[in-house]
């Protein structure tokens, strides 16, 4: 049986005038997403919904853990949770997220989320 290659999407977006590279790979048990405005990997985080989270995720906090990179940065945690909620919450798959952003402002977050939702065909579906 041939090995299956997971679906890979690569995008060049403009977020608030800044070129932003996005790589999105859907594995069977998780999703990997790299979002970079600096040409680097940046901070790598694991983001997921708690196992007891109900359908749709209404009102339940999402868990974000920094694996590599800048720790104890509340803005990165907010970005990670919001990216997860925007693109992965319905599928309930864990997200490995790499963030290297030049601007961590709320306005940049809103612009980034809008561009991600516009660009990604099927945000977080498993490759089965």
Could you please describe the fold and organization of this structure?
The protein has 128 residues and is of the alpha+beta class. It has one domain: Ribosomal Protein S5, domain 2 (2-Layer Sandwich), CATH 3.30.230. It has helices at residues 74-87, 106-119; strands at 8-15, 18-26, 31-36, 43-48, 63-68, 95-100. β1 (8-15) and β2 (18-26) form a beta hairpin. The longest helix has 14 residues, at 74-87. The chain is globular and about 35 Å long. It starts with 7 loop residues before the first strand and ends in a 9-residue tail after the last helix. It comes from Diacronema lutheri. One of its GO terms (biological process) is proteasome assembly. InterPro entries: Proteasome_assmbl_chp_3, Psm_Assembly_Chaperone. It holds the Pfam family PAC3.
Label this structure with key terms.
alpha+beta; globular; 128 residues; six-stranded mixed beta sheet; Ribosomal Protein S5, domain 2
**Total helical elements:** 2
Radius of gyration: 14 Å
Strand order of the largest sheet: 1-2-3-6-4-5
Shape verdict = globular
InterPro entries: Proteasome_assmbl_chp_3 (IPR018788), Psm_Assembly_Chaperone (IPR053720)
Pfam family, one: PAC3
GO biological process, one term: proteasome assembly
Organism: Diacronema lutheri (Unicellular marine alga)
What's this, in brief?
It comes from Diacronema lutheri. The protein has a single domain (8-50, 60-119), classed as Ribosomal Protein S5, domain 2 (2-Layer Sandwich). It has two helices and six strands.
């Amino acid at each position: 049986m041939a090995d299956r290659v997971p679906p890979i999407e690569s995008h060049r977006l403009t977020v608030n005038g800044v070129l932003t590279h996005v790589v999105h790979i859907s594995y069977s048990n998780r999703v990997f997403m790299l979002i970079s405005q600096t040409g680097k990997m940046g901070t790598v985080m694991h983001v997921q919904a708690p196992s007891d989270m109900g359908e749709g995720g209404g009102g339940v906090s999402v868990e974000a853990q920094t694996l590599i990179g800048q720790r104890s940065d509340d803005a990165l945690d907010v970005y990670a949770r919001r990216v997860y909620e925007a693109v992965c919450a319905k599928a309930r798959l864990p997200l490995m997220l790499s963030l290297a952003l030049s601007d961590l402002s709320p306005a940049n977050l809103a612009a980034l989320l809008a561009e991600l939702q516009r660009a990604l065909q099927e945000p977080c579906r498993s490759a089965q």
